[in-house]
UniProtKB/TrEMBL annotation:
Source organism per UniProt: Fagus sylvatica
GO BP terms in the entry: carbohydrate metabolic process
Coiled coil: none
PANTHER family in the cross-refs: APOSPORY-ASSOCIATED PROTEIN C-RELATED, GLUCOSE-6-PHOSPHATE 1-EPIMERASE
EC number(s) from the headed UniProt entry: 5.1.3.15
Catalysed conversion reaction: alpha-D-glucose 6-phosphate = beta-D-glucose 6-phosphate
UniProt similarity note: Belongs to the glucose-6-phosphate 1-epimerase family.
Protein name: glucose-6-phosphate 1-epimerase
A GO term, aspect molecular function: carbohydrate binding
GO cellular component labels: cytoplasm
């Protein structure tokens, strides 16, 4: 089993205990520590921008691309579900056209069934390139009864929060979870450029399949997706006073419930690139 847990992908981080499995001359790398944890991510190289480090759980702290599954936000079970708190096994790894690829798997067990009593299989494939990172999440119903879920990739991007902004959300219906996440305020995004002036926790329904993040550090990150129908912007502001200035979250999400019959599956992809 490989637990994937990492703090924010800041330029000063290093991982001497990790075994490097592939490396490009640019900024992408993949590494696996079989003893305790597995990391698959994008190394920050000064001047080349910043993609998030891929993580499957944030049990030791926030950062990377934690999975919110089978629930996004507050609800009947724990906040953001259990997907980010469990060990994922390494199902397969290799190279496709010179790019490192790894597939991780999560299945139901006593911990998940204690709060969500269904049998499932989650597969998460990650492909690295020199200046891009692609992910594919597949959820399969392996139970003998139907179930529903919602999900998100809680993506953290290293940024200067005062200079960060997102384009592509104008016209979307919004659910503003500030001040009450359980009773979000409905609205419509009227801005061409959305910034992070303070605490932000806002859902954008029926978001476009391409957004652009200016990280405030001189980089434009393009965020493309298929089947992630919604988006979420988040920055905790003074709730995380020690680090909020150094990141923003631009999340691909599926806010509405996905209904799966036995043996049915659902797949969504994400592609992050620095242009």
């Amino acid at each position: 089993m490989a637990m994937v847990s990492m703090a924010f992908s800041l330029p000063t981080l290093s991982y001497p205990k990790y075994r490097r499995v592939n490396r490009h001359s640019g900024m992408a790398h993949a590494s696996v520590n079989q003893e305790a944890a597995a990391s698959l991510g994008v190394k920050v190289t000064e001047g080349e921008g910043n993609l998030p480090k891929v993580v499957l759980t944030s049990a030791g702290g926030s950062g990377g691309l934690p999975h919110c599954f089978p629930q996004f936000g507050p609800g009947p079970i724990q906040q953001h579900g259990f997907g980010r708190n469990l060990d994922w096994s390494i199902l397969d790894s290799g190279n496709v056209e010179g790019n490192p690829v790894i597939t991780l798997e999560l299945k139901d067990g006593p911990y998940s069934r204690s709060m969500w009593d269904y049998s499932f299989q989650a597969l998460y494939k990650v492909i690295l390139n020199t200046k891009s990172l692609s992910t594919e999440l597949t959820i399969k119903n392996t139970d003998n009864k139907p179930f529903s879920f919602n999900t998100a990739l809680h993506s953290y991007f290293h940024a200067s929060v005062t200079g960060a902004s997102v384009r592509g959300l104008k016209g979307c219906k919004t659910l503003n979870k500030d001040p009450d996440p359980k009773n979000p305020l409905e609205g419509k995004e009227e801005r061409d450029v959305v910034t992070f002036p303070g605490f932000i926790d806002c859902i954008y329904l029926d978001a476009p399949n391409e957004l652009q993040l200016d990280n405030g550090l001189g980089d434009i990150i393009t965020i493309k997706n298929t089947n992630w129908t919604d988006a979420v912007l988040w920055n905790p502001y003074l709730q995380m006073e020690a680090c909020y200035k150094d990141f923003v979250c631009v999340e691909n999400a599926k806010i509405g419930n996905v209904q799966l019959e036995p043996e049915q599956s659902w797949t969504a992809t994400q592609h992050l690139s620095i242009g």
